[in-house]
């Protein structure tokens, strides 16, 4: 067993920010405003400002009495994230943001504009403790969990930027959220689930993005996958598998030493059955490591047996990190891999790669500071 890996879903609250409105549910918001000596209706008012108008500065909340704005700001809107810098590429359609939290912690999010949707990739932890050797974030290790509000505020900020036309392409609406940035979402389980509820609840309780437009990824924390299934949500589950055989996965995804591929796929099937959603299998194709034809055959065979039609493979051309020994597979190898997976009766496509010239691999920008 890999004793260095976290064996619980939630790490200690080390360096967490003060309580923020986005950390609170509806009842907790009412209690909080009453503790400030304000009437209960102010809770709904503040939530509509934050989630509906995407406003995070009480000084600009004109429907709030001027003499209470400072007190509300100090108590319910502590500074969470400040922009260190934005980097854009793909003709401006991809924008990566490096954020600094209240304690100096660095984290990242990436906004991607497509013809039919606007997708935000968000972080759930600063760093990651899963230690996958080909991942920039995994190489850096785990700094700390993000709070519910720190996760939600990445989304609010991106939605506001799109609405206000601050991103190339003019005003738009945020439509899709993927928990595929820094960190292992299910290792920060409670706060991630709370964040999903804030992101997907209609105003005034949340940002109103459809659960079906939210994807939560995991390297395969099988008990947490089952726990997520029992939340009765309809978010999509993405499992970062990266190889169909335990021998190699023990190295590529060290948490496999605790929960084997069979256990992970069994939990994924439970999630698919409970949610009614097809599971996405993420597979970073690495030259001469996991791109052999026999591995494509075995992947398709195992997925077809475990999940049947309730699975889709996202093949990801590896985005190498500086100084890494890992490299992307050649295109002919990639095409043959896709063909073989499909031949086993499993749908498989190659993910559109974005932002390669702006250190788009998760963790690269934070590592550079």
From TrEMBL:
GO terms, biological process: rRNA base methylation; tRNA methylation
Active site: 108 (proton acceptor), 362 (s-methylcysteine intermediate)
Primary location recorded for the protein, binned into one broad class: cytoplasm
Pfam families hit by this protein: Radical_SAM
Reactions that this protein is recorded to catalyse: adenosine(37) in tRNA + 2 reduced [2Fe-2S]-[ferredoxin] + 2 S-adenosyl-L-methionine = 2-methyladenosine(37) in tRNA + 5'-deoxyadenosine + L-methionine + 2 oxidized [2Fe-2S]-[ferredoxin] + S-adenosyl-L-homocysteine; adenosine(2503) in 23S rRNA + 2 reduced [2Fe-2S]-[ferredoxin] + 2 S-adenosyl-L-methionine = 2-methyladenosine(2503) in 23S rRNA + 5'-deoxyadenosine + L-methionine + 2 oxidized [2Fe-2S]-[ferredoxin] + S-adenosyl-L-homocysteine
Family: Belongs to the radical SAM superfamily. RlmN family.
Residues given in the record as [4Fe-4S] cluster binding sites: 128, 132, 135
Species this chain originates from: Nocardia mangyaensis
Gene Ontology CC terms: cytoplasm
E.C. numbers: 2.1.1.192
Domain Radical SAM core: 114-351
Catalytic class of the enzyme: transferase
Co-factor binding comment: Binds 1 [4Fe-4S] cluster. The cluster is coordinated with 3 cysteines and an exchangeable S-adenosyl-L-methionine.
Needed co-factor(s): [4Fe-4S] cluster
Note: Reaction proceeds by a ping-pong mechanism involving intermediate methylation of a conserved cysteine residue.
GO function term, MF aspect, one: tRNA binding
Swiss-Prot/TrEMBL keywords: 4Fe-4S, Cytoplasm, Disulfide bond, Iron, Iron-sulfur, Metal-binding, Methyltransferase, rRNA processing, S-adenosyl-L-methionine, Transferase, tRNA processing
NCBIfam families: rRNA_mod_RlmN
Binding site for S-adenosyl-L-methionine: 183-184, 217, 240-242, 319
Subcellular location(s) per record: Cytoplasm
Function statement: Specifically methylates position 2 of adenine 2503 in 23S rRNA and position 2 of adenine 37 in tRNAs.
Name listed for the protein in its UniProt record: Probable dual-specificity RNA methyltransferase RlmN
Database matches in SUPFAM superfamilies: Radical SAM enzymes (SSF102114)
């Amino acid at each position: 067993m890999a004793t260095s890996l976290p064996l619980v879903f939630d790490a200690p609250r080390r360096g967490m920010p003060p309580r923020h409105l986005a950390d609170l549910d509806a009842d907790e918001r009412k209690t909080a405003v009453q503790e400030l000596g304000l009437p209960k209706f102010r809770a709904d008012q503040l939530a509509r400002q934050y989630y509906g108008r995407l406003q995070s500065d009480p000084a600009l909340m004109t429907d709030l009495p001027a003499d209470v704005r400072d007190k509300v700001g100090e108590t319910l809107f502590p500074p969470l994230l400040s922009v260190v810098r934005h980097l854009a590429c793909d003709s401006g359609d991809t924008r990566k943001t490096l954020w600094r939290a209240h304690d100096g912690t660095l984290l990242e999010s990436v906004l991607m504009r497509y013809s039919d949707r606007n997708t935000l990739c968000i972080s759930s932890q600063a760093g990651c403790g899963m230690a996958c050797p080909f991942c920039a974030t995994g190489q850096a290790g785990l700094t700390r969990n993000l709070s519910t509000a720190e996760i939600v505020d990445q989304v609010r900020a991106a939605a506001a930027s799109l609405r206000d036309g601050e991103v190339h392409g003019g005003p738009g609406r945020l439509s899709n959220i993927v928990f595929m940035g820094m960190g292992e979402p299910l290792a920060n389980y409670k706060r991630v689930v709370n964040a999903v509820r804030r992101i997907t609840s209609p105003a005034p309780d949340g940002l109103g993005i459809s659960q079906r437009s939210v994807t939560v990824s995991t390297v395969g924390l099988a008990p947490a996958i089952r726990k997520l299934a029992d939340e009765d949500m309809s978010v999509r589950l993405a499992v970062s598998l990266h190889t169909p055989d335990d021998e190699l996965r023990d190295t590529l995804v060290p948490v496999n030493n605790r929960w084997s591929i069979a256990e992970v796929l069994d939990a994924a099937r439970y999630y698919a059955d409970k949610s009614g959603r097809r599971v996405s299998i993420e597979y970073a194709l690495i030259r001469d490591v996991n791109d052999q034809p026999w591995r494509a055959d075995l992947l398709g065979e195992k997925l077809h047996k475990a999940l049947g039609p309730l699975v889709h493979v996202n093949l990801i051309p590896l985005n190498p990190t500086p100084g890494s020994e890992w490299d992307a597979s050649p295109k002919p190898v990639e095409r043959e891999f896709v063909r073989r997976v499909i031949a086993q009766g499993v749908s498989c496509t190659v993910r559109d790669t974005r932002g390669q010239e702006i250190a788009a691999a998760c963790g690269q920008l934070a590592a550079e500071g």
